[in-house]
């Protein structure tokens, strides 16, 4: 290849002329190792679908100047989140209502792809740096991304060449959607909150959680958010019919309660597992048939994941009290049933490794990832008030808020 053919041009994605070439690069990048299962993503004809619901977003493509061939791409989005908290009125209490969130402007990098035939040419590095330029122009203080711990090429690019450091290792918990509905404990009352009530509850109780989005109202009112559900012990004074609102609830809460919200990823993208043998597919189908015919046995069944399938993402998981984990379990059963009605094959969530409520989330280890790797880099020092110092050097907390717009 001549030197003139090696000139790489990075520019903004143009849906009209780049759609087909971008989809082709995606396909080439998702070819898994021979003989092994691989996860493919169908973006349903919208390459920006996984960032377009953020306050600001951008997609860049890299092309050869001579042939105009697309050889790489990157997506990024910008928002404001909590990076820490501080107490006010000189109080020393650990009550979250007695603390103020410290916000910072962050950017998230998603979907960096470089065509296999054009790797080791510095294209990935060039795309990252151009995206970071856009971040800086928009006042971003920190840039971060998620990657698989064992994706050594990606980890090396960001940590060795781009100056990112390993930051958090949350767990991605995935559970199959069975052919039968899951029972919700009769000791639990479920209450669906309005978006405004959910916003009030989240802001008052979880706004100091790391990565809590300041525009939580936009998340909760988005068409993809299927609802926020609160679980309380049956017999307490709160029910759907007598719900007094979040303010009253938080002033007189029961001993234990839990909350989570559901996001419909199925209308954004589909996933597909490829590379399975005929025997594996037959075995999976058999488990589904048995599960459907004999639901009372509660036999584990493998959902239809060998063709495009949808998922629901559970976010905003939280709660208080000694029975909070059991209440989370009931909420997850309800979310499973919503996913079944919605034609999804799995439900997923992502929580901090040290999250106390993690034990209440049912999941299959074979589908889940115990340590997703988040890397972070500080780009500037002009946004937050300096109280936290350098966030990249802060120790992990017990909880983290995972924005469904970036899953």
UniProtKB/TrEMBL annotation:
<dbReference type="Pfam" id="PF00583">
    <property type="entry name" value="Acetyltransf_1"/>
</dbReference>
<comment type="similarity">
    <text>Belongs to the acetyltransferase family.</text>
</comment>
<keyword id="KW-0808">Transferase</keyword>
<protein>
    <submittedName>
        <fullName>N-acetyltransferase HLS1-like</fullName>
    </submittedName>
</protein>
<keyword id="KW-0012">Acyltransferase</keyword>
<dbReference type="InterPro" id="IPR000182">
    <property type="entry name" value="GNAT_dom"/>
</dbReference>
<dbReference type="GO" id="GO:0016747">
    <property type="term" value="F:acyltransferase activity, transferring groups other than amino-acyl groups"/>
</dbReference>
<feature type="domain" description="N-acetyltransferase">
    <location>
        <begin position="8"/>
        <end position="183"/>
    </location>
</feature>
<dbReference type="InterPro" id="IPR016181">
    <property type="entry name" value="Acyl_CoA_acyltransferase"/>
</dbReference>
<dbReference type="InterPro" id="IPR052810">
    <property type="entry name" value="Plant_NAT"/>
</dbReference>
